[in-house]
Amino acid sequence: MKYEAVIGLEVHTQVRTQTKIFCGCRNEYGAGPNTNVCPICLGYPGVLPVMNREAVRQTIVAGLACGCEIASYCKWDRKNYYYPDMPKNYQISQFDLPICLGGEVPITGKGFSGEPMRERNIALTRIHLEEDVAKSTHLGRSSGVDFNRAGIPLMEIVSEPDMRTPDEAYAYLNALKQILEYADISDCDMEKGQMRCDVNVSVRPVGQTKLGTKIEIKNLNSFRTAHRALEYEIERQIDVLEEGGSMRQETRRWDDEEEATSVMRTKENAQDYRYFPDPDLMPVEVSAEWLEEVRSSLVETPHARRARFVEQYGITDYDADVLTHEKATGDYFEQAAQGRKKPKAVANWIQTELLGALSKRGIHISDSPVSPQALGELMDLIEAGTVSGKIAKDVFAEMLDTGTSAAAIVKEKGLEQVSDTGAIEGMVDDAIAGNEKAVQEYKDGNGKAIQFLVGHVMKASRGKANPKMVVELLKSRLD
Ligand code: ADP
Ligand code: ZN
Ligand code: MG
What we know:
Elements: E1 3-14, H1 53-65, E2 69-70, E3 73-74, E4 77-80, E5 90-93, E6 100-101, E7 104-107, E8 120-131, E9 135-139, E10 142-146, E11 153-159, H2 166-182, E12 195-205, E13 215-220, H3 223-242, E14 250-255, E15 260-266, E16 276-277, E17 284-285, H4 288-296, H5 302-313, H6 317-324, H7 327-337, H8 343-361, H9 372-383, H10 389-402, H11 406-413, H12 421-434, H13 436-443, H14 449-460, H15 467-478
Parallel strand pairs: 13-14
Antiparallel strand pairs: 1-11, 1-12, 2-6, 3-17, 4-5, 4-16, 6-8, 7-8, 8-11, 9-10, 12-13, 14-15
Bound molecules: adenosine-5'-diphosphate, zinc ion and magnesium ion.
């Protein structure tokens, strides 16, 4: 029998605010353990939470960027459970009335394998806001709990069971991260715990519409791991079904060393959490005015920018994909291309020269020693024929090392392309006189022999002769 996988993701992302969601403690990463804490985020009895409006605003921003419907009324609920990361024994979350409903995330481009994929939209169920819990660390026989993380605003983005392959899940995670980065909500650094994902997966015979029993996998520390765990789990589930077994709904843990999943617990359901409205917090009303205000502050989404780049600058989908991958790269491109005749040439240069050179030096594009304006000026010199493309590469290397402008380097080193017919003619004549064999071969009908003569002239001019003119002059002499 042939099987297909069904995948739905739950992604948690910390929201970048000044302070925590229900108290005034700082929301920052990397402070000493238990230094950003107070009676509220430590869960002392008798304290009262006060909602952080900015956390709600950013969740609305995320929702609008994903085309969600924004609820005009939502509320806070207590999710009750007992664990050392949450001493008040409940987490403040949102149950039946989340801030954002529906929406979708467009996926394009490549999956994990790098194979091009079909473009489509992955449907979202909801986005809600909750408080993060403390971080526990287990070292040998002792454990530590750091409450700096407790109370950091945490957005949960729940997708519909809408993905069919690990590659789609991988592309979805990347697309979501890109949206959140563009909207300045989070850096989505998984190593810092800013983004965490749980994957849900089931399999069913192809053609069956009823969903199979889902398994949730936790402890995924990278998109790559999520992809790997899904591949493993899909294969495992198919094997069980093939052998006549059945699935039981459960939560499994991914083990990086074993490269396998193992049972963590059989699945609890919503009743187990005894959700009820938090009596300490007012419901949240999002007025039409506030919603409009947030909407008008939205930045362009990555997919809108991708489409605009193709349209406005005449570059390919592939180029637009690379240039919009990070917001800073797109910003750089737009500044460099500003007012230039050939934005396509700027796009090429960034992709073939700049990005590689920066990554080799371990420099992020926002810290590039060559500013977008400086790169644009170099492109102008190429366009005007002042330097050849080949010399431009040397000039560019120098710009990267010294931060000097292209024009200054060209002037100082005398690198102007020679387009003066008289000067080139002399060198062409020398090349013809000194290379009888190549000349004869060319005259005998071997067109390629001319390249040898071109090379000769280019060398004599130290790369500065205008290659197009060299070819033209050689041909006019020999033909
Ligand atoms: P729970 O109540 O266990 O949290 P939900 O219905 O809220 O389950 O779904 C959680 C996630 O699991 C969602 O992302 C959803 O798309 C996904 N999901 C639900 N059912 C299935 C299924 N049968 N197979 C794969 N994923 C599923
Ligand atoms: Zn606090
Ligand atoms: Mg759920």
